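Example 373, ligand zinc ion.
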Amino acid sequence: MANRSALILLFSFFIVACGSQDRVANPSEFKKKIAKNVKAKNIILLIGDGMGLTQISAGMYNNGNKISLERFPIVGLHKSYSSDNLITDSAAGATAFACGVKTYNGAIGVNSDTIAVQTILEEASLKKLKTGLIATSTIVHATPASFISHNKYRKNYEEIAADYVNTPIDILIGGGKKYFDRRESDRRDLSQEFRNAGYMVEDYFNKDIIQIDPPIGKKLIYYTADNDPVPASQGRDYLLPATKLSLDHLQRQNENGFFIMIEGSQIDWGGHANDGDYVLTEMAEYDQVIHQVLDWAEQDGETLVVVTADHETGGLAIQNGSKLDSLDLAFTSTKHTAVMIPVFAKGPGERLFSGIYENTAIYNKLRQAFGWE
Ligand code: MG
Ligand code: ZN
């Protein structure tokens, strides 16, 4: 009996010793091992444009003190500034996530010398993953554009749209139809070019999003507006069904996984307008989308979900006198601010996202989670 206890004791000591040695003697090996074990098959990147911590807090209080972001086990913070300004814009902000480079405000998928840099979505496509972009702005607006286009200036919308035919993206949903098929700078009909390349191309004039049911393997473009989609408060309601449709469609055909970016574009526009109700209604919609994505990813089990923003907009404050059901919101600016931005992660690779880091590190962490570096 005594012998057996001694043996167990000795054995336990051996395990403890090995364990601590693993951590102390070779921390980089240990780190590598963790990263290796947590490869994500799919990544869903959710960007709430202009969604700083106050927008999140306001959205939470306005929703009875609950928000889907509470379901994330890992929270980090990123430093959002660009290469030429402490206050980033959405182009440099999204290019940091998409390409891993700090660049100047206005840059779409190019570095500070205006040289094109391969995006994570383009790399995913080359590696035979399925890809998608969804936005509640035009689909050629800075945030989605930075994942698939390369242009020295964010407002060259027709040039940006022309880049989209160069990557065989599987799903594109957003506004801005006119930049594809009623172009002023040339006679090209990009919608027809997409059809010729085998895409299903539909729009909100002809079909509601819930009527869209692409066959397995079919690439889809769905225009939600001719120009900017309207705010959620004016009836825009496609982001939830578009997200569901896209995740299900990509999952049904993915042997190699997928990368999709889904943007809540207009939280930012509420901030620029210094319109608290605009911010709250956009936050409420985006919270539902995050909730739906988490439910989907939990079911799937191989999907990493990351939620962040490019920057805060409006210098929003929740003022003294506010109550849960009646917030007194105030803005200090009609522009963006430089406050650090929360990052939420759940799923394989989630641990990579804790801590404080540059916005460009999100690119590296996403690639690491895929097992690409
Ligand atoms: Mg945006
Ligand atoms: Zn903005």
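Summary: The domain at 44-370 is CATH 3.40.720.10 (Alkaline Phosphatase, subunit A).
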